[in-house]
Structures are given as C-alpha cells and as structure tokens.
Amino acid sequence: MQSYTVYLTRNIPDRRDFVNITDEVADAVRDSGICEGLCLVNAMHITASVFVNDDEPGLHADYKRWLEKLAPHDPSPQAYQHNRTGEDNDGRSPHAADHGARGGGCGHRRQARLRPLGALFYGELDGRRPKRVLVKVIGE
Amino acid sequence: MQSYTVYLTRNIPDRRDFVNITDEVADAVRDSGICEGLCLVNAMHITASVFVNDDEPGLHADYKRWLEKLAPHDPSPQAYQHNRTGEDNDGRSPHAADHGARGGGCGHRRQARLRPLGALFYGELDGRRPKRVLVKVIGE
Amino acid sequence: MQSYTVYLTRNIPDRRDFVNITDEVADAVRDSGICEGLCLVNAMHITASVFVNDDEPGLHADYKRWLEKLAPHDPSPQAYQHNRTGEDNDGRSPHAADHGARGGGCGHRRQARLRPLGALFYGELDGRRPKRVLVKVIGE
Question: For position A59, which CATH number holds?
C-alpha cells in the first residue's frame, strides 16, 4: 500500500465562497503514482467544506441563498449561543460540511470517473484567513 | 492490497425515488474476495445520492415530503438561478447527497456489520435517464 | 495492509445528546500501530451520527435547537408516516447523519492533523439504549 499526502491552502477574501479545486486534486492523484485506490479530500476546518457539483455561477448563488435561509447569519448571542464565546461564525458551517472520498485511478480512467460528477469545490464558510484542505491518496 | 470495482446502473421512471441496492452491494463485496477493508458506494451524478436507512415505505414518503419542504421544486429561473442554464433540476439534490464508506468484512461478519444499519439505498433526485453508482471494495 | 477494528458502545440517557469520543478514537489509532492510512468512524445505527466540531456547550445547544426546527419531533402518524410502524423517532436523524473518514498518522503527526478540526463527537438522536460506533483503522 502506498500513501501520498498534500495540503492545499486557501485564503478567501469573502466570508463565504466556493472555489474549484479539481485541477489541484487531479495533480495530487497524478503525482501520487497510485493507479487504484481512494483519494480523500477533506477540509481541515469546521467552518469549511468540500463538495462536488457543476462549476456554474447560478448554482453557487443558489447555494449561498439557500444556506442563508437554512441557517441565517446573525452574530448576536441571542441568535446562536455559540456566539457567546466571542466567535461570530454562528457554528453554522458544519450543517453544510461534507468531505469527499472518491475512487481514484490512473490517467484517463481516473478522469472518466470524475467527469460525470462535475467539479470538486472547496466551500469556504468563514474566510479571510488561510485555511487548509487535506488531499490524501491511498492505494497501489 | 486488492481492489474490486463494479458499477450499478439505474434508470428510474420517476424524478425522485429510493431504491434498495443492499443485495447488489453485498454481492460485489462477496465477489471481490476481500475479507477486511472498505467498500465505497458512491453515486456518479450530482443529482443522486446513496444513503443508509430502514426499507420502510412511510419513511421514504416522509423523505420526499421533507426534501420538498427543504428545497421546493420550481423550474423557474426566479426560484433558482441555476435554472437559467436550461436545467430544471434546481441544483437541489446535492443538499441531500451523501455517500457511504463502510467497513467491509467476510461472510457472516460483513453481514453482522450491515444489519443494525438497515438497508443501503440509491436515492434518485432527477431520474428518467440511466445513471450509475460506483461500488469499490479495497482491502485484503 | 493492516486493519484494526474496535467498537465503542454508548447508552445515552437522553433522547438527544452529543458526546466527545476523540480520546477513544485516538486510542484506537494508537493501538492499531498504523502510521499511515485512514480511520473510519461510523455510527452503527440510523438514528445516530458522528461529526467533527468544537467541544463548546453553546454550539451543542444551537445544534439541538436547529435540528428541532429543521425536523420537529412529533410522534403522531400524521406528522411522519414512519411513525405508523409504531416507532416514534420520526425518521428524523438521518438528516443529520454523517460519518468521519479521516487521514490517520503516527504519534504527534496524527494529533497535528486532528487539532484544527476540533473534536470528534458521537451524536445521539434516539437514545436510552446501548448503541455502537465502529472505529476501523486501515493502512500500514
């Protein structure tokens, strides 16, 4: 069994945004030399997420609006008890948190498996500071 | 390390439905010959999901109603900007998307680990066309 | 490839509660002797979950309130068809279900990777009976 790990770092200027990281993850899989296995892509912060979807701006706008409706931002301690700690991120982001463990592969085979899924995104939910994404490839 | 991959294909006549795929996944684990490892079951489309729950019709009816309340279907471009692309699936399904990475095993041991979890389902959220589910077993 | 499996058991006196299981999972990783790989932590019940977040009581109170708003508890068969089976857990919990597959490691390296993520929790959604969490470490 082989293993290969890299970290991607993102410093998103907005509080919330979605950034396409497909190419960097594909590079990691290629650099790993692993032909058959799994690639785990995981945000290293509780106020961030990783998800798969189309790279379409309207969809991302829908996401932001839908998340705001589902868990409205409100820094007051009345809205979220978690804000009494001095944090103002509402503890909201884990609701949207996800991580991607996908089947890997080699060369064209790997790409064929990603294609119908769309693109891989880093979802920032409390930005304005550097944050990391773990990319770990395991297999042979 | 050994690896074994199969794809299940489903063409669901309705837009939304939930289909029990437990037996086919169990067959894949058995056919893999792998006794100890992980089985990744992952929908290869952003408008589909995989989840674990009881095989109980009332529960599935509750799911459909709850999802409709959480993210109502509305093909108009006013409701979801994503619909301006000509798609009418609202970009809703990823909200419910999940994937199952479960500990595998051999023979009775494997079954014992699945049993308390209920059954494994393919959750269709934009059907009426053939779609695929990746089943990948990794281990020894 | 090596594999190491343990089960944690919890009998939570309340219907819903969140319990920090970070130390027990870290113990399992250490006991496995595996330096590089994955650790799968998975609730063995459909009315339970595993998630990563801060160990902060206000946040947990927010969770409980937010989940109640998202999928209110109501044991009547009018509220949820699933309740007609005689169960009163509403089929709610899967909405919050998650599982954690994290990159493992050895000694200080492993801890360094968990630290920015906060703590690992067992999320009970239908307690008052013994339930199990699978902890499976795979790697080398």
Answer: 2.60.120.460
The residue of chain A with its CA nearest to that of C120 is A46
- DSSP run (H or E) holding A73: none
Interchain pair A66, B95: CB under 8 A: yes
The minimal CB distance from B38 to the residues C40, C45, C90 is found for: C40
Rounded to whole angstroms, how far apart are CA atoms A72 and B3?
44
Q: Is the pTM of this model over 0.80?
A: yes
Chain B residues closer than 8 Å to A51 by CB = 94, 97
Copy the structure tokens of residue C7. Answer: 């089960």
The string of pLDDT tens digits covering residues A51-110 is: 989 899 999 999 999 999 999 989 999 999 999 988 776 554 433 333 344 444 444 444
Domain that holds residue A130: 2-139
Phi, psi of B138, deg, nearest 5:
-130, 135
- The count of structural domains within chain C is 1
Q: Do C103 and A5 touch (CB under 8 A)?
A: yes
Cα–Cα distance, B10 to B4 (Å, whole number):
20
Nearest CA to A97 out of B94, C24, C75 is that of: B94
Distance of CA C48 to the CA centre of its chain: 6
pLDDT tens digits along C45-58: 989 999 988 899 99
Chains with 3+ CB–CB pairs under 8 A to C are A, B
- Locate tokens 């790997």: which residue? A110
